[in-house]
Amino acid sequence: MGSKKIIGAILAALLFAVPAMAESQYGEAFLEEGKMTVLRDNKPKIFTAEKDKGAITILEKDLIRMSNNSRVRIETREKAQVNLGSNAILQVEAWKQRDKNGNMRMLFGRFRTKVTGLVQGEEFNVKTATATIGVKGTEYICMVAANGNTTMIPVDHVVQLEGLDGLVRDVSPGQISVVVNGQRATPPTQVPKEIRNDLTSQRLDSPSVESHMASSLPGESALVQTGIVDEGVLMESKVEEFTLEQALLKPIGEMESMVREGQSFSKEAEIK
User: Fold this and answer.
1) In a domain, 272, yes or no
2) Digits of tens for pLDDT over the chain (272 positions)?
3) Could you tell me if 10 and 241 are in contact, meaning their C-beta atoms sit under 8 angstroms apart?
């Protein structure tokens, strides 16, 4: 399936939502710049920083999509502060994978999370289409491409990243780990200086999900040149894509069977 067809499927998927029946509050959003759309009960509601200056209630099953030149801060009931940048797409949907569970699925774009005040036994975990990020009182930056490729950089304390195979990588501040094409998270490596500033930018801007850059992680050439990411695996990920359609519509826990251009393949996530 070509990239234009894949993006078309993504946009179609974003129009789908399960009606929320008295859903619980997940948190509050504070729109700092630009525009944010919240899809709830199949109905989009648009908020702007100019008009909506107070707290915006976020419920379970909400789908949040940021516009260009936009930023929002979300305070969750899990004691996390989540900052989304331009064009980011997030879904509040409960999930469970092995020994981790959470309520936040990052579908596309960049976000920065800071977690404080957790007590023993409490966690804040985030799911992307191909990776799981787990923290206990820490801060990190993450980038998710339209094909599910995920880059994570800790800002404070150790953060855990794992791919679909379940191998957990403990990543420290100043290091980077990447999940490409649903494979094992790469070993923690020092962030390449060529992309350090871009990856840690407070702006958290991402290209539009409709753009040709939607399937690219920031600094891909540097990731390949420094040996962090294998070029062949990276190129394969741009053909056999984990799309937002799958992240949004497919239940976590099943063996994914996908058909593209007449060829079938499957990836077993071993998720329960």
Assistant:
1) no
2) 444 444 444 445 554 444 445 689 999 999 999 999 999 988 999 999 999 999 999 999 999 999 999 999 999 999 899 999 999 999 999 998 888 899 999 999 999 999 988 777 788 999 998 999 998 778 999 999 998 999 999 999 999 999 988 999 999 999 999 999 889 999 999 999 888 888 888 789 999 988 889 999 999 999 999 999 999 999 988 875 444 545 444 433 332 332 233 322 233 333 32
3) no
Q: Which two tokens stand for residue 8?
A: 């078309």
pTM comes to: 0.81
Sign of the Cα torsion 9, 132, 156, 124 reads: positive
Distance in Å from the first CA to the final CA of the chain: 29
Range of the domain at 247: 3-267
CATH of residue 15's domain is 2.60.120.1440
Number of domains in the chain: 1
127 occurs within a structural domain = yes
> Does residue 185 lie in a domain region?
yes
Residue 124 lies in a domain: yes
3-state secondary structure the chain: CCHHHHHHHHHHHCCCCCCCCCCCEEEEEEEEECEEEEEECCEEEEEECCCCCCCEEEECCCEEEECCCCEEEEEECCCEEEEECCCCEEEEEEEEECCEEEEEEEEEEEEEEEECCCCCCCCEEEECCCCEEEECCCEEEEEECCCCCEEEEEEECCEEEECCCCCEEEECCCEEEEECCCCCCCCCEECCCCCHHHHCCCCCCCCCCCCCCCCCCCCHHHHHHCCCCCHHHHHHHCCCCCCHHHHHHCCCCCCEEEEECCEEEEECCCCC
Question: What's the farthest any 2 CA atoms get from each other in the chain?
Answer: 51
